[in-house]
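Protein in question kept underneath.
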Amino acid sequence: RPCFPAGCAAPYGSMAATGAAAALVQYVVLRGDLGRPPRSWPLGAVVAQGCHAALAAAHAHRQHPDTRAYLEMGGAMRTVVLEAPDEAALTALAETLKQNSIDHEVWTEQPENTATCLALRPYPKDQVHQHLKKFKLLK
């Protein structure tokens, strides 16, 4: 069992036992057009965008109890990867999330200054799903 320094949140084992931690999910929304012509990014480059966004969101919100509980889940973490058709759809989603006070991070690839992906911090699915239901799973 991990040891927590003074002032940190208590372990989340009791949450997992009640199912609260198991309901946490991190949503990652990647631009689908990056992997298709005319851009045709390599698969690894597209996957890296999702990794960057997910880590940025987890880091930015690392003190939030849901993020801490999610990270403590180890191999039981649940991540859902969705597809935004293009940059405009990704930008519109980011604005919707901002308007609804949903914590997220947009990953912008440099030096191109192109928004490629966004990730929410881990949330209970029922708190955020309504904002994401129009996006399909990335294929």
Summary: Strands lie at 24-31, 79-84, 104-109, 114-120, 123-124, 136-137. Residues 1-18 have pLDDT under 50 and may be disordered. The chain has one domain: 24-137. Residues 92 and 98 are 10 Å apart (CA to CA).
